[in-house]
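ok so for the tutorial part 2 we go from a plain amino acid sequence to predicted structure tokens. step 1 is just haveing the sequence, like this:
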Amino acid sequence: MRILFAGDDWYGSNARSFADGFRRAGHDVTVVDTTAVTLPRRGTPAWWYAKATGRRWPADVAAAHRRIEEAAGTSRPDLLFCYTAVHLDQERLLSVPAARRVHYSADDVANPVNTTPAYLAAEAGWDAIVTTKAHNVSELQARGARRVVLVPCAYDPAWHRPVAPRSARRYAAGFVGNARPDRADLLTGLAREMGGRFYLAGNGWRRRPALRGSGATVRGPQYGTDLSAAIGAIGANLVLLNSDNRDTHTCRSYEVPAAGGLFVGPRTADHEALLADGREALLFDGPAELREIVARVEADPDAAARIAARGHAAITGGRNTYEDRAKEIVDALS
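step 2 — the prediction. this is what the tokens look like for a chain of 334 residues:
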């Protein structure tokens, strides 16, 4: 199948992993990078425009569409696959000559920050909407989506695999992910309690005043194999969810065990189905239980390592890569 893939093509992005997954599944893939539209560079006129209006810089949108249309004219795609293209011109996307046009969102499509009025008005025009959220299926159907395809998140074996940490320092516990209000109190509290035994990395953490003087290691975002190296230095790898997206699992649910890290996450139906609690992962119901788990991991690192190894085997031995998800989507469309 000839696939025209429109999505963010920067190193470590899930969109790049998905495009490569389609290629590994045997398809002829052409990628158009939409990063300039999706993530305008901080401090640029396009960034200020997005902050002020909620829309994207018109020149960047127009340039992305020119590249998509030129690529479609050359590759004559059977499938146009758009990874979170809500800020692009929906009419132009749905006019691209392709046998099928599919929109994918890894985030909750009922959360207003993940849609636009223009996208919602055009949603029923897509041949299929792909979502990772089980709760979105009935909601999309009620909104008039022609077809809804549910696939879980995934990991990329090119990046998410055991690699050597980049320093000799090791941490009892840690978290790699964006700063968010629903996780800030928990993580800043752990950082202050554990000091140098805690690792925290991701967008926004270094700007948190509460972390100053905590003694914890605080870094910026980690992508690709740098993410796996960070995971490898952490004893208890916290996998936290986004309440605004009503997450029941996330990409980290796959990436942490794939990288060989010990998965320590909230007890949800998705997590319980993915990994056996106590054998392949350690699940918790609240901050008190989480702190008990961290203390157990620190007291018995050998037992923790055995659980991490079984979790790694469970994820990598299953059908959990982006190639597997690409096959699931193509099968569902067929």
